[in-house]
Amino acid sequence: MKILELKNVNKIYNSTEVKVHAVNDVTLDFAEAEFAAIVGPSGSGKTTLLNLIGGLDKPTSGEILIDGINLAKLKSSQLIDFRLRNIGFVFQSYNLIPVLTAGENVEFIMSLQKWSREDREERTFELLKAVGLESRINSRPAKLSGGQQQRVAVARALASKPKFVLADEPTANLDSKAATTLLEIMEKLNLEERITFIFSTHDQRVVKMARRVITLEDGRIVSDDKRE
Fold it and tell me: How far is it, in rounded angstroms, from Cα 223 to Cα 228?
């Protein structure tokens, strides 16, 4: 079943000196429980495409449909609410809230969604256990390693049971061991929770593990390799 469709999507940035076609006529769809990597050289449009899918940016033209809802047609307040309920994000720089504990960071989205305290606490412990950090539930980010912070970020992204998770270079700041551990955890959660993961990455470890690899060049799709 398709949960995400992109139809003839373009993103053009105009300045006084140059016009950049960052995403060029991209048509794609994703199904439930995919584990996909978007790859390509720097400047190929990977991050821009991920931002468009996540509703962090709007296309110049084309449609981005999640369960049939066109993101480009939503007002800002509607888009914020839609992202909150449907999309999880994992960023290269972790983006944890430094004054909150690991548990509070995971709970944050659920609090915004008005989950009950009991349900929030149960889901938080369940996810931190899944990423091997239940013993650090009361630790603030400054007391965690980079790999541990990124695992908390993954738990936070999954907290509200989104339809899919967008991960922009999630292993870029991690050493080899931490990156491998993180990817194994993400793959396990992908299979167990049936949540689609879409990565933007240069990391060959991610590419090897992905079950679908989409290659971009100059904003265009040049290959779409499904390995399943």
Answer: 15
3-state SS track over 61-119: EEEEEECCEEHHHCCHHHHHHHHHHHEEEECCCCCCCCCCCHHHHHHHHHHHCCCCHHH
Vertex 163: Cα angle to 158 and 167 (nearest 5): 60
**Taking a C-beta distance cutoff of 8 angstroms, is the pair 30, 198 a contact?**
yes
For 197, what's the count of Cα atoms within 13 Å in the CB-facing half-sphere? 33
Residue 2 has pLDDT above 70, yes or no: yes
Mean predicted lDDT score pLDDT of the chain: 93
* Residue-level pLDDT at 150: 93
Cα 70 from Cα 63, distance rounded (Å): 6
Taking the mean position of all CA atoms in its chain, how far away is CA 91?
7
- List strands edge to edge, sheet with 220-226: 87-90, 164-168, 196-200, 35-39, 212-217, 220-226
pLDDT attached to residue 17? 75
Q: Which two structure tokens, joined as six digits, stand for 54?
A: 């996540």
